[in-house]
Write a structure and sequence with these properties.
- By secondary structure, this protein is α/β, with parallel strands linked by helices.
- It has one domain: Alpha-Beta Barrel (TIM Barrel).
- The strands form two sheets. Strands 2, 3, 4, 7, 8 and 9 form a six-stranded parallel sheet that branches. The chain has a three-stranded parallel sheet with strand order 1-6-5.
- Helix 7 links the parallel strand 7 and strand 8.
- Helix 2 packs parallel to helix 8 and helix 7 runs parallel beside helix 8.
- The model has no long low-confidence stretch (mean pLDDT about 95).
């Protein structure tokens, strides 16, 4: 008799099975029009400061998912994020495809990054975003059991593909709805011109969403949760 091969659940199936610890967006009460801007792969000393400058100019608080190795290299930028009212999330230590890792290796990716972030921010982040949005059931259960909430997105700007500012803006405006979590990037490559579209599009995204009466909030406000990990 053949042994049944273990069935791996898709990301969509995992979200349905674990709705309390795996989020793509938020349910909004009637009349609410909140959205959360989230930025992955930060920090670096090229793109991240430009993104922070724009957010400061427009008085917006966002959520940054940090790569541990980069947070270690640029602690001053992490401190600036906190000082300017942004929320910090965990995006692994060196951005691997987590589904290829053993559970102990996955735990190291989360915990090593958490230690670095705590040194700069004073807290252990509650929110974890897996690189490429990919995570398996064992890892997701571990995250939930250890006080984390896994947060992906429902609006993908695809800015990392090197899109123009107008295409990035189009991707946001087509996909956004009340409760949306918008994915952008604030670091990730030293290639000249990388994420130029992000920086150029951001003021227009802010302006057009405000014209449509959207309110910008951090993930804890959107998800009615807390920024610190639940111990």
């Amino acid at each position: 008799m053949h042994k049944m091969k273990k069935q791996h659940l898709t990301i969509a199936e995992l979200r349905l099975k674990y709705p309390h610890i795996f989020k793509l967006n938020a349910k909004q009460r009637h009349g609410e029009r909140q959205v959360a801007l989230t930025f992955d792969d930060a920090p670096d000393n090229r793109i991240t400061p430009l993104v922070l400058d724009i957010l400061k100019e427009h008085n917006i608080r966002a959520t940054f998912f940090l790569v541990g190795s980069r947070a270690k290299a640029y602690p001053g930028l992490v401190e600036r994020m906190v000082r300017e009212g942004h929320v910090i999330g965990n995006h692994s230590y060196n951005h691997p495809l987590l589904t290829k890792l053993t559970l102990p290796a996955f735990e190291h990716q989360v915990k090593d990054t958490e230690r670095i972030i705590e040194q700069s921010t004073g807290y252990k982040p509650r929110y974890f975003r897996p690189p490429y949005g990919e995570i398996n059931e064992e890892q997701l259960r571990w995250a939930g059991d250890n006080g984390y909430m896994v947060v992906n997105w429902d609006v993908d700007t695809n800015d990392w593909r090197g899109l123009t500012a107008s295409r990035i803006l189009q991707n946001v405006m087509r996909g956004v709805r009340p409760g949306s979590i918008i994915l952008q990037h604030a670091s990730g490559s030293t290639q000249n011109g990388y994420l130029h579209g992000t920086v150029k599009a951001l003021p227009s995204i802010i302006q057009q969403l405000r014209e449509r009466k959207y309110e910008f909030v951090t993930l804890p406000d959107l998800l009615q949760d807390q920024k610190e990990k639940k111990e």
